[in-house]
C-alpha cells in the first residue's frame, strides 16, 4: 500500500508547514485591523422592563 509510505508525503507536509509558518504567517500578522477593539468606547445601554399588555 503506497499510502503508508511516509517518504514523499512527510517532506511535502513539512515543507508546506514551514512555508506557512516562516513566510505566510508573519505577513498576515503584520496587517493591522481597521477597527481595533481598544479604541471603542464602552456604551452602557439602559434597559427598561418589558410591559406585557395582558398583565
UniProtKB/TrEMBL annotation:
Subcellular location: Mitochondrion membrane
Gene Ontology BP terms: proton motive force-driven ATP synthesis
One cellular component term from this protein's GO annotations in UniProt: proton-transporting ATP synthase complex
InterPro entries: ATP8_metazoa, ATPase_protein_8
Domain of life: Eukaryota
Record field: transmembrane: 6-24
GO molecular function: proton transmembrane transporter activity
Keyword Ribonucleoprotein: no
Keywords carried by this UniProt record: ATP synthesis, CF(0), Hydrogen ion transport, Ion transport, Membrane, Mitochondrion, Transmembrane, Transmembrane helix, Transport
Mode of membrane association: Single-pass membrane protein
PANTHER family (alphabetical): ATP SYNTHASE PROTEIN 8 (PTHR39937)
Name the UniProt record assigns to this protein: ATP synthase complex subunit 8
Organism (species): Pagodroma nivea
Amino acid at each position: 500500500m503506497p499510502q503508508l509510505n511516509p517518504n514523499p508525503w512527510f517532506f511535502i507536509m513539512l515543507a508546506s508547514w514551514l512555508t506557512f509558518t516562516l513566510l505566510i504567517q508573519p505577513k498576515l500578522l503584520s496587517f493591522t485591523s481597521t477597527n481595533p477593539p481598544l479604541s471603542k468606547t464602552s456604551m452602557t445601554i439602559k434597559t427598561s422592563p418589558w410591559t406585557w399588555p395582558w398583565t
